[in-house]
Amino acid sequence: MSTPIASYEFLERNQIVRLRGADNQQNNTGVLYRPVTHQVTTFGSQDTASLTRGAGGGTGEALNVGVGVGGFRLFNSSGGSIICALGVRIPNILWRAGQWDDDGTTPYTDDTVDAQDAGTNDFALNTTTASDGFVIHSSVQFNLVSLDVGTAGDASTNASRYSNTAGSGWTDTGTNLVSDSLESTGERIWFSHTPADWGRTQASGLSGIPGGRYAWNFRSTTAPAVTVGLADSLSIYRMYFIDEVVETNTVFEWWPGGTEASMIPGDALVAFFGTADNLNAVAALVRPRV
After folding, report:
1. For residue 50, is pLDDT > 70?
2. Cα(75)–Cα(284) distance, rounded to whole angstroms?
């Protein structure tokens, strides 16, 4: 059955940052669209009570569960060839994060409160020991992380890995689409295609990470000599539409006619431009999805 165009809201605006910019990882400033909220107590088989964290809501609280897109256009005005993408923000209630001590007895220590609050420089991204770093784990898959780095580290080499198919160990990430160094402050981005062999952590957990989670581990292979990286907050996203080569003054677009892309779960629609420019622009037909 086709979806009438009258069912959608049309949005059109410029985007001056790549994704969220600095200081916006845990607020709604600059998101393209937020659907209406719905009252929920579970998402699939996931008990949300154990995952209640801030803006995403919790048991019996409001949760924006999805965005329907009937078509979109991303216009690149950056002056060069860039990657462009469209997707949704994953609600806080579905993910957690913490530090990783690679040679620790239990390497993972939860620090979700600091990852999801507005406190300054309270989420450590690495230590002065090589292979330490941080972990994000979620009940749903994600492929982009936005960090608001308040204190830049001085490690120059970073690596990542994800929970393997069996959920019993790790698989090294291949080449990422975007892999910002932690040597600068402001918004730093990691962006990759979603791994086809990404498995949930085993029922008994993985190195302190609970079972049934899609886990990603970010580590400094060259340890900071003096200053470790510290983030104010972070947020995670699932980017569904990706074009790795969009030439300047051209568009990446999808207008299917009569159907739509349902991006569930997602509490806000977002776009990514590989290079920020004041004239980069987004147009889309959107509506809430349950």
Report:
1. no
2. 12
